[in-house]
Amino acid sequence: MAKLSAARYGKDNVRVYKVHRDEKTGLQDVVEMTVGVLLSGEIDTSYTEADNSVVVATDSMKNTVYVLAKQHPVTPPELFGAIVSSHFVEKYKHIHSAEVKIVVHRWTRMTVDGKPHPHSFFRDGAETRNVEAVATEGKGIDIRSAVAGLLVLKSTGSAFHGFIRDEFTTLPEVSDRILSTEVDAGWQWETFASIKDVEAAATKFNEAFDGARDITMSTFAKDESASVQNTMYKMCEQILAAVPKVKAVDYSLPNKHYFEIDMSWHKGLKNTGKDAEVYAPQSNPNGLIQCTVSR
What we know:
Blueprint: E1 9-21, E2 28-41, H1 44-48, H2 58-71, H3 77-91, E3 95-105, E4 108-112, E5 115-122, E6 128-136, E7 140-154, E8 179-189, H4 195-200, H5 202-222, H6 228-242, E9 246-255, E10 258-260, E11 279-281, E12 287-294
Antiparallel strand pairs: 1-2, 2-3, 3-6, 4-5, 6-7, 7-8, 8-9, 9-12, 10-11
Helix pairs in contact: 5-6
């Protein structure tokens, strides 16, 4: 006999742009984000009995995101995610949990004639600021903040040796190599009891994001890396120390490889080891290193 064991539904890829205009200074700030909403609760009959009376239309979810973006601040995104997720749990008594995912896209203010331009921006990379906010009836609001798509590379200061060697091993040991990765790092906050608690912590979210991003790049650059594993662990330790209200930090780092090109076939041209200058960037396969460090 078949039984519905899990169900949730929602609206994905809701594109939102908001502008804030300071009438006194003429300065404008812009935020562009992509929002996703997933609801769960007493909705089983919509699946098993074609009962749409329990369904909040996904188009209504989209409209709700737009209205709440007009009525409330959208920065920091942790606060807006908490506002949206709490709304659905409070508005609809049969909805017991709402998950909201937000991806904030970069718009960086232009500098024109040596001065910040009041209303012109450019996208300076694919890096995004991400948030997952889950409001659960009777349990509070859980928030995970993240930076994703931050592409970094250093041309030296990384090694990898001492790993297991057996009949499957062809990878040479190296004391110096290129290290590159696309950072996906997140930090889970202690559960917030209510939206008021999230509002009270609003200034902490930007501080934590800037701090985690700075720690990531500083550690990546300065660490004489013995492995991606060890470097990411150091990053996690520092973020936990810097942000007391964070209970866990996670990293997912793909290892983007750059291989030396042996050119000895061309008139004995040296391009390996200490003579290597020209490399072949690789797309895949790639290493993928992940960890979560908790208090």
